[in-house]
Write a structure and sequence with these properties.
By secondary structure, the chain is an all-alpha fold. The chain is built from 5 helices and no strands. Helices cover 71% and strands 0% of the residues.
Length: 124
């Protein structure tokens, strides 16, 4: 039981993931869908950061004069941080493109509700 509670960051990940997925699937408003997509992305960021932590691990920097054979150390993997930085940039650009599309849809249709836009497309 305590092991499950000790992994609270994975519970938060699952909760955020489900909230984001729910918003993307069920909300008819395009702006709310984008917010759900951002929550979904934040959950993925949390997952990568949670997987990165190595108990007792240090930054992968070898000090001057240290010999790996005589002084073994446990290092944390820096790759997840690099992937998160890249994902943040991609997430920001995706959000800005999505908001630009929402503005353009609002100008063209006068609404940002998915069902109303679909109805207008079918009638024209």
């Amino acid at each position: 039981m305590m092991d499950l509670l000790g992994l609270y960051n994975y519970w938060v990940f699952a909760f955020l993931l489900l909230i984001g997925l729910y918003a993307v699937i069920t909300k008819p408003n395009y702006t709310k869908k984008l917010i759900g997509l951002n929550i979904f992305q934040a959950a993925i960021f949390l997952l990568y950061i949670s997987m990165d932590k190595v108990e007792g691990g240090t930054a992968p920097i070898i000090s001057h004069g240290a010999q790996a054979a005589h002084d073994p150390q446990i290092y944390s993997n820096p790759l997840p941080q690099v992937l998160i930085l890249t994902a943040i940039v991609v997430g920001i650009s995706t959000t800005s493109l999505g908001l630009a599309l929402v503005v353009r849809i609002r100008e063209a249709y006068g609404t940002i509700e998915e069902d109303k836009v679909s109805d207008m497309d079918r009638t024209h």
